Amino acid sequence: MPVQTRRRPPSRESAPAGRASASVVPPPRRGGGRGKDTTPKRKRRKDPLWARITVIVGAMLMMTSGAAIVGSKALIGQATGNISQQNLLGDAGKSDAEGGDTLEGPIDMLLLGVDARATWAADDVRADSIIVLHIPATHDQAYLISIPRDTEAQIPAFKKTGFTGATDKINAAFQYGARNGGGWAGGAQLMAQTIKKMTGVSFDGAAIINFGGFKKVIDALGSVRICVSQEVESIHMSYVDGEPMWNADAKKSGKKRTPVVHKKGCREMEGWEALDYSRQRYGLKNSDYDRQQNQQQLIKAMAKKAISDGAMTNPMKLKALLDAAGDTLILDTGRANIADLVFTMRGVTDNELTMLRTNNGTYHGNEHGREALSPLTMDMFKAVKEDRLAEFVFANPGVLSTRK
Predict the structure, then answer these.
(1) CATH fold of 51-219+310-380, please?
(2) Is a pLDDT exceeding 80 seen at residue 279?
(3) Which residue, 196, 154, 201, 160, is CA-closest to 173?
(4) How far apart are CA 66 and CA 64, in angstroms?
(5) Based on C-alpha coordinates, what's the Rg of the chain?
(6) Which residues contact 338 (CB under 8 A, 6 or more apart)?
(7) Cα–Cα distance for residue pair 78/67, rounded to 1 Å
(8) Which of 211, 219, 259, 352 would bridge 271 by S-S if both were Cys, CB 3.0 to 4.6 A apart?
(9) Contacts for 19 with CB less than 8 Å, ≥ 6 apart
(10) What secondary structure letter does DSSP report for 27?
(11) Where are the transmembrane segments (predicted)?
(12) In sequence order, what are the residues at sequence separation of 6 or more whose Cβ sits closer than 8 angstroms to the Cβ of residue 84?
């Protein structure tokens, strides 16, 4: 079934289904809004079938361009045919005044990773990975900012599910929006509205990926190179007869279990291992903050592998990669056509995927002793909204992730 993304489709009830260089140079000041940029436009690359791909939260946000634009767009449309398209933003989408009617300015997307398992109710799921992807109006750089899952948030009322609003951990917003028939689309909408209320950032699009999608995409890639910075024992998996198994299944086997331990060092990881490592937080020095950086590292590693493997120059490989994520990914490209979004972001490469830290990479409590975003982090999100994030990072290099 062909993907239709020009207009955001109606919500369905249920859908379960880089580090910058050491020298960070701020870009020239922009013209203040979409369509008002006075900076000379860059010429389109002339490389035949040149392509780039960035894999987002276990699936992918494609970034391509090439001389054969018509053929490339046709390939994109065919390859994305199995990806579910839903309204994931609701009232948190950018207005026309914010540039929501064009892709000529900065692009902001909300990326959510959910841990949905077959034994859990479809609407009893929280978003364990919350990432804001910011692409400045120059369209030649991309930033990933993770929001800590335990951050205290004012979650607004959500009429669709009868939710009256509450103060809770931010990852609960997804659960409140998904209940009572809201589905995953409702969960994403309430999460987007919560983030907008907290930071002022509106979105051009969004994506949800079931963590199981990580494994499928990595397996399609073969493996990814991950650098483990802290040795950590998995709380999710064990070896039984030399094979990795979920702990619950390992216990049922009645056989001897050996803990899965992720040792320090860089190596190629299969899908199950990379996914398991990226989900650990207990036993890490900075808990969820270290996990955020590990998840960002995984996204970048997947993007690099997809490029080096030639997935973007081989139609069969590209389709296999997208098919692997298709049934675990839900996408909303707002009012943009997916092919237009892809070509708009053609200048972003995996080496320009910059990972940023919130709260200086460690816990920050508020006056109630609950986790909150620090003043510096709030300034960072203000810079996102005003499209001056490169200047902010230049002035505050400590927000750069230490992961490679």
Answers:
(1) Nucleotidyltransferase; domain 5 (3.30.420)
(2) yes
(3) 154
(4) 7
(5) 20
(6) 3, 5, 76, 77, 80, 331
(7) 19
(8) 219
(9) 354, 355, 400, 401, 402, 403, 404
(10) P
(11) 49-70
(12) 15, 17, 329, 330, 331
